[in-house]
Amino acid sequence: MTLFWIFLVLVIAIVLGNALTLLRTAKKPKIPEGVKPKPYRDDEENW
Fold first, then answer.
1. Mean pLDDT, range 18-31, rounded to an integer
2. In terms of Cα–Cα distance, which of 27, 29, 25 is closest to 17?
């Protein structure tokens, strides 16, 4: 029974650690102030 609780705590710790890592890396990238988007060209123009 004790082995079950140790295994359960280990699984919960791994899942929480992975979730926190994903949340930390899922932040939107910061774009510098002077960067402007390139104008969109329709793909149909190239035909």
1. 86
2. 25
- DSSP secondary structure, 7-47, as one string: HHHHHHHHHHHHHHHHHHHTSPPPPPTT--PPPP--GGGG-
Distance CA 29, CA 4 (A): 41
Q: Sorting pLDDT into bands at 50, 70 and 90, what band is 43?
A: low
User: Global pTM?
Assistant: 0.52
Classify burial at 39, counting beta carbons within 10 Å of its beta carbon; exposed 0-12, middle 13-18, buried 19 or more.
Answer: exposed
